[in-house]
Amino acid sequence: xxxxxxxxxxAIGATNDFTKFEDIKLEKLEFDSRxxxxxxxxxPLKGARDGHDFIGTAFRKGAAAVISEIPAAWPYLxxxxxxxxxxxxxxYYLEKQKPDVIAITGSxxxxxxxxxxxxxxxxxxxxxxTQGNYNNDIGLPYTILSMPADTEKLVLEMGMDRxxxxxxxxKLARPKIALITLIGESHLEFFGSRxxxxxxxxxxxxxxxxxxxLIAPADPIINEFIPENQKIIRFGTDKDELYLxxxxxxxxxxxxETNFLNQAITIPVPGKFxxxxxxxxxxxxxxxxxxxxxxxKALDKVELTKNRTQWLKAANGADILSDVYNANPTAMKLIxxxxxxxxxxxxxxxxxxxxxxMLELGPEAPAMHASVAEVIxxxxxxxxxxxxxLMANLAEVLPAAHYFTDFDALQAALVNEIQANDQVLLxxxxxxxxxxxxxxxxxx
Length: 444
Ligand code: 2GN
Known about the structure:
single chain, alpha/beta, 9-stranded mixed sheet, 14 helices, binds ligand 2GN
């Protein structure tokens, strides 16, 4: 992380007399006490639980310091708001290390585009990218602070949980290149209309210089939001700056040509939208002077991140929201709240939540599982399926829920229950195996 305790104290404007603590180098920053190792700095956040309750745990695990809203018995930096401090510190670290930031947003496709862009840039530069779904006002600053000090290119995914969020993230990260993959109608974005989604995504230009390029789809819906004098490169059809000239789709790979590369490119994933994503990644590579044969080789063997929040279609037509990546109470509550606000499919579509155990939560795990009930609105969920020994604690306070201890029985019940018009959320620790049920439902 290349930051010392005093330096961090100054960067976040800590209000206590922190110079009385030794000015040690900190290894890395963590907000989840489970991830703390020797020499780290702990930053408690208010999630489902108040992270300040875990300061003692963090030090027992080897934390060397804490950023805290209250005094601590260990080296600490006191601030009024730890989340704001996280964001300030990320901004400070960026300004200190000065990597070039490539910011990516857009429904669906953004993860693939992020992985492909990072793969292309890594052919020539020390490159770091957003891990998992760390793309919000907590995840993005955390990503920045997790970046190795010698990073040259930082590829950041920017998500849109709330209106104005991308605007905020762009001002924090100050992108050198911004990329919008698509103005869709993603289930996970609640802006009322495509126009509001377009407005939200165009917030990506808020923190960038007008001379630096925005790469955006030809879709006219964004036009009214393009800042005056903004350099913009548009993609889509042969009327635009970037487009596919040839596409050969196969079962598990595809080959495409573009108007700006000499050679055809083959990528090990199918789907026309992936050709567009790879084209965008290649273009960023070109802008950053990666040689064409290096771009070619990087995309040839690109590995894409799996297992994050995604909408899938079940074989019978049901919509599946699969989220087996973040197993903590905050993430479970957030996805439930989001899922519940999505209108049911018409006609007669039901909303079904399938929740499995969250592991490694310590002695309070039973209470944390039970507390998920706080966000459940029975009027917005038709059926709840709970699975695993810890979920018994939630089942106890949700008598209408179907409770399972046996994996095969759960799977059989779901296969039997889910109808074409339903929406199904699946969430739990990776090791609970819900990913297998997702595969069964999608028929893969
Ligand atoms: O939604 S998130 O997952 N997010 C991350 C950033 O990118 C976008 C998505 C998210 C997670 C967010 Cl937005 C915010 C927070 Cl605060 C968190 C988060 O990590 N929440 C966590 C908890 C809560 N609430 S992690 C965590 C782990 N902790 C339990 C509570 C908790 C483990 C633990 C349990 C018991 C002890 C110690 C640790 C213990 N030891 N008790 N007694 N001794």
